[in-house]
Amino acid sequence: xxxxxxxxxxxxxxxxxxxxxxxxxxxxxxxxxxxxxxxxxxxxxxxxxxxxxxxxxxxxxxxxxxxxxxxxxxxxxxxxxxxxxxxxxxxxxxxxxxxxxxxxxxxxxxxxxxxxxxxxxxxxxxxxxxxxxxxxxxxxxxxxxxxxxxxxxxxxxxxxxxxxxxxxxxxxxxxxxxxxxxxxxxxxxxxxxxxxxxxxxxxxxxxxxxxxxxxxxxxxxxxxxxxxxxxxxxxxxxxxxxxxxxxxxxxxxxxxxxxxxxxxxxxxxxxxxxxxxxxxxxxxxxxxxxxxxxxxxxxxxxxxxxxxxx
Length: 310
Known about the structure:
Layout (H helix, E strand, L loop, with lengths): L6 H5 L12 H19 L1 H8 L5 H22 L10 H22 L5 H4 L1 H18 L5 H20 L7 H23 L5 H11 L1 H14 L6 H29 L1 H7 L3 H13 L7 H17 L3
Helix pairs in contact: 2-12, 2-14, 3-12, 3-14, 4-5, 4-10, 4-11, 4-12, 5-9, 5-10, 7-8, 7-9, 7-13, 8-15, 9-12, 10-12, 12-13, 13-15
């Protein structure tokens, strides 16, 4: 798992999409890693729905962070990774607050009353929000073609997922909007840090930093919420802890470091559509016939954003 040997090469690539990230083997490899990260994330909502079959929302969120933190801590200790420099900790705490604590809890609360298809709207808007936050942090502005394609893709995904539930706003939508904001900040900061630290260390230190809060939430929730752990609930909890909260981020942040936060974030436009497929296969929800049409629009937008110059 150790990727220290590639950190020097990665650090030479600007996170906001410099010339070196626009093509070549690094660009293709970065695109592949980001795409694999998206594939890993795409099953998060169905896995969370499984977890909620046996655990309350606070328990499921706490266990997700606690188990991921223990796994990440073991990896850091095994690799004898030194503590990051002080200048990196504001970004790492943003990753912890947005990606480890805020997003999982808010989306889990939303999934109590919202379907996985409807909840995918937050992912549909997340790439555009991540690109915007990254642009604000770095001062680099992607091209007009990039923003146009990103906006069309996000709009197509949002329209499709809202159409699934007749576009009626609910309390769950409030949770999802909050999750969108905090996760966009965590993604952008994590992608920036991945140009200075190996990608797996960025998320590892993020979940370790959140470990005290995750442990406290788990302890309080276990005492307050009923549990009926089934095989599916345990599998779902294990997946969101090991893959959604840790393993997927290893690939995701490495991809961001290689091809830039804006370009990598737009690959995530495909995530809601993949989530819809998982929701049919794993949760039993029905897939709209509009899904293939939306998929073609999104794939076209991804192609444009990957070719657009910063």
